[in-house]
Amino acid sequence: MNGVLIKEIRLVLGITQLELGIQMGVDRRTIQRWERGETEINGPAEVLMNQLKTEAFRASGVPEIRLKKEAKRKRKKWPKRN
Q1: Which of 32, 34, 37, 51 is most buried (most C-beta within 10 Å)?
Q2: Could you tell me how many helices (H) and strands (E) the chain has, helices first?
Q3: Which of the four CATH numbers 1.10.10, 1.20.1270, 1.10.260, 3.40.1620 does domain 3-74 have?
Q4: What angle do CA 25, 30, 34 make, to 5 degrees?
C-alpha cells in the first residue's frame, strides 16, 4: 500500500493524521512518513489499514480500483533515511 492511497483513505474517512494515529496506535509522525512514502506500512498496522480502506470505499461509494489507479499515478519516490 503506497502513501498516496493511505492519505486518500484518511481523507475519505474525514480524519486528521493525529486521529488516524490514535485509531491505529501509532504516532502522527508515523502517519506522515507513510503518506510521504518515507517508510513502508507493515504488520498489524497494514492489516488495520486494509480494514479502514474497505470502510472508506464503502462510505464514499468510489470504486476501489479507480483510487488505486490514481494513487499509482501520484506516487512519488522519496529517498530513504539513514
Answers
A1: 34
A2: 5, 0
A3: 1.10.260
A4: 115
**Per residue of the chain (82 residues), what is the pLDDT tens digit?**
888 889 988 998 889 999 999 999 999 999 999 999 999 999 999 999 989 988 888 877 766 555 555 555 555 555 556 5
Residue 39, amino acid: T
C-alpha cell at 79: 529517498
Q: At which residue does the C-alpha cell 502517519 appear? A: 31
At 76, the amino acid letter reads K
What pTM value is reported for the model?
0.70
